[in-house]
User: Fold these one by one.
Assistant:
Number 1:
Amino acid sequence: MAPITGRASRLTQGVRRGGRSLGGAVVRRTWAWAERIGAITSDAPHGHRFAHLGAGVRIGFPVGCLYGTEWICLGDGTLVGSQVTMTAGMFPGLDLGPDPVLRVGRGCVVGRGTHIVAHESVTIGDHVFIAPHVYITDQNHGYADPHAPIGGQPPRNRPVSVGDGCWIGAGAVILPGARLGRNVAVAAGAVVRGEFPDHCLIGGVPARVLRRYVPGSGWHSTSNPEEDAVTANDQVIPIMIVGDSISHGSSGDWTWRYRLWRHLRHQAVDLDLVGPKDTLDNIRTEEVGDDDDTYADPDFDRDHDAQWGRPYVTEKDEIEAKTREHDPAYLLVLLGINDLFWYGVEPPQFEANLREFIANARRGRPGVAIALGTVLQCQKAVDDAAFGARVAGSNERLRAVAADLDSPAEPVVVAETAAEFVAGEHTWDGTHPNPNGEIRIASAFADVLADRFGIGARYPRPYPDLPPVAPHAKASID
């Protein structure tokens, strides 16, 4: 057949162009129709049963992975882009209990290709704008067992909270345990863990505060020349351990302070233990208050604020000066047994003293994060039911105070130090921890630092069975 040339060729090409144009128009109109019809709204949920789907909600088509909707709440007026994944639970068909697991507030925008994966609790406030391709989750795989594949190890959940009015830039990752205050701007590509206050700009890997708003004086950079000396060391975390003899330790001990320091350093956490002391109590003499440095292993940061016999009753009046002088970012507090045993404090007064302690600690160091250890079981609490009830009652008060005073700007959390501590197995004299007790105290604080603040990782289980301190280390020399 002869080739088509001239006028016939031009006619053929025009037909082809017209066909492509017409075909393109048909595809675009069909796609627009599919987007309109395929969108999920409160009026057209398309078979999905949400815990709550507010008025004016729209989830764009094509939808990403969407399951566990019975535990997902979307507030009024929230717009979700196309190809967004929102899931509750690890896979479909789970029973996650009576309460929602993923909550998105009113008037939010969730950008295209974003993933929000909730297992325990992801809460996003009102009027939060999330740019495309953000990843938010409250679960990571554990990696404590070096011999098992990480993907097969038990996962760990830590709730995530994003405050009202936040902006999360494209490609950011919000990790388990992250807590953002109100109106926090997250830079594109940031990896966010830990807790951040209201009205700040954060960015980087891991994210840190770049600018913050101070009422009355406006926005301030944290990286200006005047602050170079501070920002050069801003990854060092100052921690002060406040306690009594259980934290002070005595001749020959490792101490739980040592166990926690070693654990965090193993996790590559750059910490600085601070406080007015660095010694043990010399238990080998009759004299009260004569310290020594006979640690079982002295090779750690030994600074602390612990003293034999100390109660909240007296420390509440001293903590302000100490936090002001030593400027800790975190207080790890384990007090209370002396209040109950030596001072006869009842739970209501225990609560009042604890509240005063927290107020004074904050006055000395505004913004300090406080982890309160629960009062440990001692042998007297086992043998004396009334005393045991006072210990339990004081711990309930401690938990209630933490829940009442906790905030993103000034966190107060509970380290459940008593949860795995048994006086008959984990003390050397009915009160003071042996090496196996030290590990259990350290693990409770390590867990809360990891879960709430993204510092390090939870303490690995199962625990090793450690030998006791050599008897001669505590033998009297008087």
Note: The first helix runs from residue 6 to 38.
Number 2:
Amino acid sequence: MTANAAEYDVPADRIRTSKPARTTDYSVLLRQVRDAGLLDRRPGYYAWKSAVVLLALVAGWTAFVLIGDSWWQLATAAFLAAVFAQFAFLGHDAGHRQISGRRSTDFLLGLVFGNLAIGVSIGWWTSNHNRHHAHPNTEDADPDIMGVLAHSSLRARAGRGVRRLIFRYQGWLFFPLLLLEGWSLHFAGVRALVNRSIPRRRLEAATLLAHAAGYLAIVFFVLPPLQAVVFIVVHQGLFGLYMGSTFAPNHKGMEVLPAGDNTDYLRRQVLTSRNVRGGPVVDTAFGGLNYQIEHHLFPSMPRPNLRHAQPMVAEYCAEIGVPYCETGLVASYAQSVGHLHAVGRSIARPEPVPAGRG
């Protein structure tokens, strides 16, 4: 069982080999999960989930047209931001081949959920996200911790100029910066197209252009220019805030691994991830990403199976002595933002900030 499977767009939980594999902690857990049927596809779930989200999108844009020239459209912007996030979660699942298990089918679904519905490139996202899964919270390897925020005191102290200033006050700036996350997702896809760093560029470009044209056309057709601009700013800002708020508790404040770290696959995924307790409401709001540990261990596991795998994984981690972090919703944000504050303050003091495990 290779620990670097995600680097090659092959989830570790889907690898099969004709030779007997060396027994590892992960292979034992994988066998238990597979025997429980938790890696089996769930087409019925994704059929009704997709239908509900599509209905919400149609309802949102229908309401937008019916309300017309009114500042009440800001409420529509908030609703559509939440709907866009739900489409992003479906795109996420398609990128991991959770839906059909077939590369081509899930890619096409990703084009619909990502490129066409919300204007986020599935090709860029899959490439970027696979790197994150291969090396979560690893310096110089995880793209998610090499952005505008510093997750370790080492990186915070290396910052210069404006970047250093942002690092210093990143705990306070975190949620305001999330208002730009939606724009960042759109821009990253376009940049990947320009840089020719993703395959099937013509199809990606055509679907992204179709979304942009349709989105701008309906907004500027229904609203006068000022209201249209305000609607777009609010909609995209809240979309980014929502997405960033669901990502925040996943890894921030957890173990940060040094560059070149060779921790085994199971511990690399568990020690760097945090689960968020909640129930059906949190599961829906987070798109299943509140089961971050299980998702990282089994990235191709269909979303509805994650909650069934959770007690199995927690029990197994306890058996082998691996810390398993699970907190409530409020505590998860407190730990995440608290860690960003601590890293920012470390710029002014010599000792490193230890990453918490909840």
Note: The radius of gyration is 21 Å.
Number 3:
Amino acid sequence: MAYLNAGAGAAREGKQAAAVTDAGAATSVVAAGANPTKAEYDALRTDYLALRTKVNALLAALRASGQIAP
């Protein structure tokens, strides 16, 4: 997709970002009671950290391809 490069005054072709695999399936479950157990909390935290890692990989791919600022 071309876009206007205001600094050069010309159209510039964008590069495609590197592929990043899909996020895995969630491993956490809905808490059984009013308060989550340690195992439920740990499963949710593991899912959160996996998604955080995936988002950071996506941002790195976009930066490396020049689609977003470093």
Note: The mean pLDDT is 82.
Number 4:
Amino acid sequence: MDKVFSRRTALVTGASVTAGLVLPGVAHAHETDGVGFVLGAVTLDGGEQVTSLTLATSRFGPIDPASLTTGTFSVHAKATSPIDTGGQDIGYNLDRPVTAARLDHRGNVVLELSHGEGQPGGGTLGYLNSKSRNFRLDLVYTVTQNAPVRLRHGRPLTITRFTQGRLANPEVDAFTYHASRSGMKYRLYSPGRRHGRRPLVVWLHGGGEGASLPDNYYDNETTLRANRGALGFATREAQAIFDGAYVVAPQSTAAWMDDGPRFAPLINEIIRDVLRTRPVDPRRVHVVGCSNGGYMSLKMTTVYPGTFAASVPICGVVAAREAGGPPLIPDAELAAISTPTWLVASRDDDTVDPQANTVHAHELIPRSSLTLYDHVVWNGHQFPGHWSWIYVARNDPSLDGTHVWQWLARQHR
């Protein structure tokens, strides 16, 4: 993890309002010491955003919280692509509004930053159209102190230098880093101590979260930062429903749809790795995926019909990629699927035709269930119609009063 952060962060300096002027009775951080800060991030439904900065100020002693206002510090953010964009404008260079300034339980100053779905300037990822991939942006944050803060004993404090540290996203950081013997990378969430063997949820990402090997880009990160697909199953709510579940998120070296038959045994190898090294119940292995991963979820149940207790393919592709070409999953294979399957899509999906793919698969897969939304709307924000995975990540699909997570948790071979 340290290697990733060192590649993605930079040292920055914020100028003090005093511009080097030493005022009587003012305590200054020594120039060689500086104050480090951590970028706090959250993965929203639309992708990861930096939502706060935590300044390591506790070593100066207690700070009077009344001396902190939204104008005490300013924050500037610059984000650039780590690879050649071919002329596409990716990234940003702007001021981040500070919405609150407070102290955490350690006495460090926390600057809350304006953020939200659709807001520019907070994202950690950029989507490169020519590659159809999400990439982690190189982030440089600059902090400037505009007014002194007061220590509890009354002395003012002005900090003259700030040093950027790591990006911290507790939900993402809870997933450990791994690679199979074949070299496919994956992240793994392990539940707290439970008695007996636990279920395993396999999350297969969309096309935008795969690697881009020609650019030497295979980071094992975007699978958890581009959306909440895998993270949803690691939430407290989901873990309570599953009574503790492992969650594994493999990262493709390309796009699953490029060669599903080749990727299937590589995914299966990861599943076997987890079964061998963790107390997982082999009768309760579930596969869930979106878009490219929706296709791959279905493909896995055709290649390994005895492996999975249940499957939830979301806005997946089964039809031919080009007019006149062969279907990605032939009708005969769909009709032979015996794994309990719950398909999800939205009617306004203009990326993957829901009628030719999700509805068609539902009509062929025996005893399958289907949830078909009109639009993708969550917390009042409308997302592209292709992003129906948001609903599964929030446990929204429901049939006869049973939600999709509860349905999954009840399935076993």
Note: The radius of gyration is 24 Å.
